[in-house]
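Can you make up a polypeptide sequence alongside its tokenized fold?
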Amino acid sequence: STAEEVEAMERFIMNLGRDRMAMNQKASECFQRFLFYLKLNQIPTDELLKYVKEIYFWPKILDEELINVDEKHAIERRKLENSLREFRKQFESSIQVYLNDVKDIELFTEYDKYYENIEQINAFEETLAAAEQEMFK
């Protein structure tokens, strides 16, 4: 998963929790209407009983599913965080190598090694450019 996918999932879960409360309220209202219907001594059809049963158990089923989704999301988030930590560690190691290269370049003061130094400096600049691209991708 990417950081954007993890953020989108967090927004989805937050919105779903808010929507869930509204749906639970509607389910409760439907169930109360059914109870009123029964008080009027009306005989419900099999189809109506099926729907009432679904409405009654629906919040519990949804809550269980939300817990599963939340657990899966937490796992994905941890994987992403660990991946980012590892990337940062490797990037910092690379930067340390580049720092050592800079210190070596500071030693290039001998004129007779001018062309060799220029080649090493160009290679170093390419390495820095690649590191910069890696950092911002």
